[in-house]
Design brief:
alpha+beta; 2 domains; 29% strand; 30% helix; eight-stranded mixed sheet; globular
Length: 277
């Protein structure tokens, strides 16, 4: 019988080790390049990716791996597939600013069932396994995560990405009058704000890849929140199919999710293509 929480310790260890690697490399001049989609990549992305993928292969030889940096590895018919984003928020990282993290998600039958997000800037680790709750570890203290119970839009903090369109922000602020937090890079970091109750609504303006959403979705849902596309459709994670979601995502603490979907249907922008966050 599969016990998903048993997968957490090795995944947690790999994320923490990768986080230490990227923080150490930040002390030296970075080697930067552009990928085919023009997104930024650094030697830190590659170093963290090598560590994580090698560790997963050793710990779970029968599992598949889909990594942002190196693509697919392992049996195509694997029951479990790890989605790896070794450094989410590379642009923030390259500037030496907060807003980056290490992310791992585990799919079972194409559904996220486990997530690890490690923010090395704050030494904050988020983790969840389906049915076992979501947790945060910081300063050696591990505590259970739960989204806020706020239901009044004027009291619900909104989280956005760096580069969020100013025109859209201006329009949405009239419909979502709660506090708007400072824009930040990294899906994982923003979803972490929701999971620990400091944010309630996260609106992304771009479509994101499967490895951007799998781990954060598993954590948010175990913390009691919701994540869908802007139109309310569920996020599909087929690692052998399309690797980019067909539209931008919406994450909330849950109670007003459908209301925010309705607001976006009136005021939202069309999908602008692949994520640049």
């Amino acid at each position: 019988m599969i016990d998903l929480p048993d997968f957490l310790p090795p995944a947690r260890d790999l994320a923490l080790r990768a986080g230490r690697v990227v923080m150490e490399l930040l002390k030296s001049p970075l080697v930067e390049a552009r990928k085919a989609d023009h997104s930024l990549v650094t030697n830190a992305d590659h170093a963290a990716n090598d560590l994580i993928c090698r560790g997963i292969r050793e710990a779970f030889p029968d599992h598949g791996i889909l990594s942002e940096e190196t693509g697919w590895d392992g049996p195509r018919d694997a029951s479990f597939v790890w989605l790896v984003d070794p450094l989410d928020g590379t642009r923030a990282y390259a500037r030496g600013k907060p807003g980056f993290c290490v992310m791992l998600g585990l799919l079972m039958e194409n559904r996220p069932v486990l997530g690890i997000v490690y923010d090395p800037t704050e030494d904050r680790l988020y983790e969840a396994a389906k049915g076992a709750g979501a947790f945060q570890t910081r300063g050696g203290v591990r505590e259970k995560l739960r989204v806020s119970g706020r239901t009044t839009l004027s009291e619900m903090p909104v989280v956005t990405s760096a580069g969020f369109p100013e025109r859209l922000m201006t329009v949405l602020k009239s419909e979502l009058p709660g506090p708007w937090l400072a824009p930040i890079n990294s899906v994982g970091v923003k979803v972490g704000l929701l999971a620990r109750g400091e944010g309630d609504i996260y609106i992304n303006q771009h479509a994101v890849h499967l490895w951007d959403s799998a781990g954060p979705q598993a954590i948010l849902e175990e913390a009691g929140g919701r994540m869908t596309l802007w139109n309310g459709s569920p996020l599909e994670h087929d690692p052998t199919g399309r690797l980019v979601h067909p539209g931008p995502l919406l994450a909330t603490n849950g109670p007003r999710h459908q209301d925010v979907i309705a607001i976006l249907a009136v005021h939202g922008l069309k999908n602008e293509g692949n994520s640049t966050i």
